[in-house]
């Protein structure tokens, strides 16, 4: 599986726990298969109990991601020490909640890291960028946070990180409109982010529709089909140093859906 890693930059001043990283450029490294949707990013997702680390990618840049992903990246020429992850700081998802980030192409100047309970730590980087207009999982996780004050309280989430978030329409799909994740979640009567089976089906549908029938309505390639815009946007993100390629080696164990 070939992902694009989006570099979501931690905005200074760093919180106490991250002070040892001062002077470096620090990024939450989000793995995505949909680089063309980056205009619609509203926040980042982390697993509260997930184990993460801050790894030196080169002399000046640090990526926060799962240890397994750091090892894979080290073998893909993205480690200060060749073939060896160099961890400066051990972290959990809870340490990441509330971090202010600046992410490529997002219309929001600053977005925040928030908890999502369905993140798999053995897939991608364990960091996910949130596009609630087009990703059903993101739409439902954001819905849960907005609708449930107790949930926000449990994780020490400030209202100002969540309540101002608005879904940004970025892709138009015939019959699904410009917030296809919302359309599908409502149609399928999905209740929360824990509704795993229905969400898997919703994801499948929106992936397919978005790719085959979607048209960009924002950004440099507005008016172009998603199929055409996707590789162009990806290349631009890579060329401008805002993203890197990440190949996920085949897993030995079968995935849950396999
Ligand atoms: C932005 C985005 C926008 C995504 C969208 C999807 C969609 P797949 O096909 O199952 O490999 N993701 C990445 N890593 C994880 C993880 N560790 N745990 C849970 N989710 C993860 O799915 C890849 C997508 O799943 C990635 O692409 C990421 O979300 C998420 F409009 O990034 B995506 C219809 C989906 N739309």
From TrEMBL:
<comment type="similarity">
    <text>Belongs to the class-I aminoacyl-tRNA synthetase family.</text>
</comment>
<protein>
    <recommendedName>
        <fullName>leucine--tRNA ligase</fullName>
    </recommendedName>
</protein>
């Amino acid at each position: 599986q070939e992902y694009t890693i989006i570099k979501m930059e931690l905005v200074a001043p760093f919180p106490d726990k991250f002070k040892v990283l001062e002077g470096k450029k620090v990024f939450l490294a989000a793995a995505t298969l949909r680089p063309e949707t980056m205009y619609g990013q509203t926040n980042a997702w982390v697993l509260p109990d997930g184990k993460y680390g801050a790894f030196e990618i080169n002399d000046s840049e640090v990526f926060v991601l799962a240890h397994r992903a750091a090892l894979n990246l080290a073998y893909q020429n993205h480690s200060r020490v060749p073939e060896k992850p160099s961890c400066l700081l051990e972290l959990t998802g809870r340490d990441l909640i509330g971090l202010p980030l600046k992410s490529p192409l997002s219309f929001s100047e600053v977005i925040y890291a928030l908890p999502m309970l369905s993140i798999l730590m053995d897939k991608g980087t364990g960091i996910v960028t949130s596009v609630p207009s087009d990703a059903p999982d993101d739409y439902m996780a954001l819905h849960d946070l907005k609708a449930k004050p107790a949930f926000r309280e449990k994780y020490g989430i400030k209202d100002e990180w969540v309540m101002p978030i608005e879904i940004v329409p970025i892709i138009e799909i015939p019959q699904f409109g410009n917030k296809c994740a919302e359309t599908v979640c409502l149609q399928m009567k999905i209740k929360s982010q824990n509704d795993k089976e229905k969400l898997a089906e919703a994801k499948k549908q929106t992936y397919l529709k978005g790719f085959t029938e979607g048209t960009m309505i924002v950004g440099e390639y507005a008016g172009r089909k998603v199929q055409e815009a996707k590789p162009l946007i990806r290349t631009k993100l890579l060329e401008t140093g805002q993203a890197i390629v990440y190949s996920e080696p085949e897993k030995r164990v079968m995935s849950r859906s396999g």
